[in-house]
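Input for the complex:
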Amino acid sequence: MALIQANFFSQALGMERQIDVILPQASNGIGQGGSEGLTDIPVLYLLHGASDDHTIWQRRTSIERYAVAKGLAVILPSTDLGFYTDMKYGYDYFRYIGEELPDIVHEFFPALSVKREKTFVAGLSMGGFGAFKLAFAYPERFSYAASLSGFIDPATDLSAMDTSTPDHPRPEGMFDWVFGSADAVKETVNDLPWMLEEHLKKKTVLPRLFIACGTEDFLYATNRRFKDRFDGRVDLTYIEEPGIHEWGFWDRNIQRVLSWLPLDERRAR
Amino acid sequence: MALFEVKFFSEALGMCTSVNVILPQKNHGIGVEGSKGTRDRYPVLYLLHGASDDHTIWLRRTNIERYVSSMDLAVVMPEVLLSRYENMLHGPKYNDYITQELPQVMSQFFPISTAPEDQFIAGLSMGGMGSLKIGLSKPEQYAAVGVFSSGNLFYRKDNLSTLIRPRESGGVPISEAIYGTTDQSTLRGTAWDPFKLAEENLAQGKKMPRFFHVCGTEDFLIDSARITRDWFAAHPQIDYTYQEAPGAHTWEFWNTWVQAYLKWLNL
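Predicted:
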């Protein structure tokens, strides 16, 4: 695999930004096979959580090694503390990641697929929210979406969680910067259960969904509630197991996500 | 413009290596122009570092990203350690890497052209001799070559000792690892010699790229530069531009002359 740190200007944000890109190669040095088929390469957009940035998945997991084995390219953007949202006070991260970034990726990396069946999104915590938000906002673009320990129901949970904790430090007022208020989330693109209900009414062709959450995670009740509400109504793979909001859980479960994705293992050798 | 730091496995070298890549971008921030967006694949300048430096040095010591920002030109900056861009007798095959694998990898990763008329190569000092050798030995792959503060370094009036860095360990000097000898005057007329390779290519009627050559009058390599100028004078069928200007082996000189080279490309 090649690791590419990209620096470019984002029109949506009005400033320079970085992404990291993991690209398959025909051969990879010792201890690692190469990939066949270096055109129309499947792509996973992989999103970080609140407190982190575009480098974190590489530093806390072996995502490059897991992706190599699948012939998968990985795009790692950053939303800072912006929740993949056009912030009330701040920056238009949703326009950036939802609309501009796919064009930028296509502009610079023509070997990557733009087909729905080869375009996936996943993330953890705030990035789990981002992954489902992208999937529900652009169901025609993503065929699979995975949320690990995701903050997937802000309309319900916002008020209760707007305080910093030792486990999850965050600036006071962060949700105000991003959303304004819990009420302002309701029945918008940020209200994920509502978005899903709307799609079900319209019989939209939806991405397949994957949820994993630790039973000791502070977001467990949120994820369990989502599962109980939508299980059987959407194509949902749900995993819960002992665990909290930590990287051991995400390292384990991102590997399950990659196994769940429809990747042709023959691309890797 | 966008800047990419690429780390990938090179089959030619048998190891991971780093490349910095500048690509035109349609959108742009303040104070620079964006790409006109008229090309599917960009013409490309392979820009080579000198001995002591690496793939980051052109970005750090010049404003290369700004200079190409209105040109719709990609810039690829590889690293070759101290290898002189050669297939080393006792070391990795850097010539194969630069001339064969790297263009293929760059076009695989990025919207970069591999058409010969879109290939440019230039460098300073060791990278200048690398560009000279690559342009003369693989003439049909490149459209225009830039040689800054260098020349065919096998040709000098002195004994070449200033080019040989002793190793404290007593290990084999790098030039011996590359060429099998520390006396580079013995390489004249051999298969290592850019002039020899050029004469073979000219005899076969191969089309040569254009050459842009500049050296500072205070540069310690001015000898080799003038001998190279004289060789080109004896081969007038090659489109060759030579200039001398006040200056030594310094980044002020290269910052000035890389801009002159880009202008001379006339893209």
